[in-house]
């Protein structure tokens, strides 16, 4: 026989609902404290700066490949415009 939560009855269902409510009620202060701490320590600003530095380094390391892709993209766009103008 396979167990199905729907067979457990209303008491089981109510215990799950109550547990979920308690979990949410406890999670709100924890989440609030987490965000306050991140702002106090400038987490978002530091993360943004680090991410930006990594992206700039990746761009600098791949300038030639990115320029090639950009040139190919321009050719593709020009071809698409030519096809659209023919109709």
Task: Explain what this protein looks like in three dimensions.
The protein has 87 residues and is an all-alpha fold. Helices cover 85% and strands 0% of the residues. It starts with 9 loop residues before the first helix and ends with a helix. The model has no long low-confidence stretch (mean pLDDT 87).
Write a concise keyword list for the protein shown above.
87 residues, mainly alpha, 3 helices, 85% helix
Topology:
Layout: H1 10-40, H2 43-61, H3 63-86
Short description:
The protein is mainly α and about 90 residues long. About 85% of the residues lie in helices and about 0% in strands.
Count of helical stretches = 3
Summarize the main sheet: none
Determine Rg (CA atoms, Å). 28 Å
Q: Roughly what percent helix?
A: over 70%
Q: Which class do the helix and strand fractions yield? A: mainly alpha
H/E series: HHH
Count the strands? 0
* Stretches with pLDDT under 50, minimum 5 residues: none
Q: Average pLDDT value?
A: 87
Measured distance between first and last alpha carbons: 65 Å
Beta-strand proportion? under 5%
Shape: elongated
């Amino acid at each position: 026989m396979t167990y199905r939560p729907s067979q457990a009855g209303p008491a089981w269902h109510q215990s799950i609902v109550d547990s979920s409510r308690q979990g949410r009620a406890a999670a709100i202060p924890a989440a609030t404290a987490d965000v306050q701490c991140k702002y106090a320590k400038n987490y978002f600003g530091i993360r943004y700066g680090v991410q930006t530095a990594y992206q700039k380094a990746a761009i600098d390391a791949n300038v030639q490949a990115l320029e090639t892709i950009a040139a190919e993209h321009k050719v593709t766009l020009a071809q698409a415009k030519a096809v659209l103008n023919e109709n």
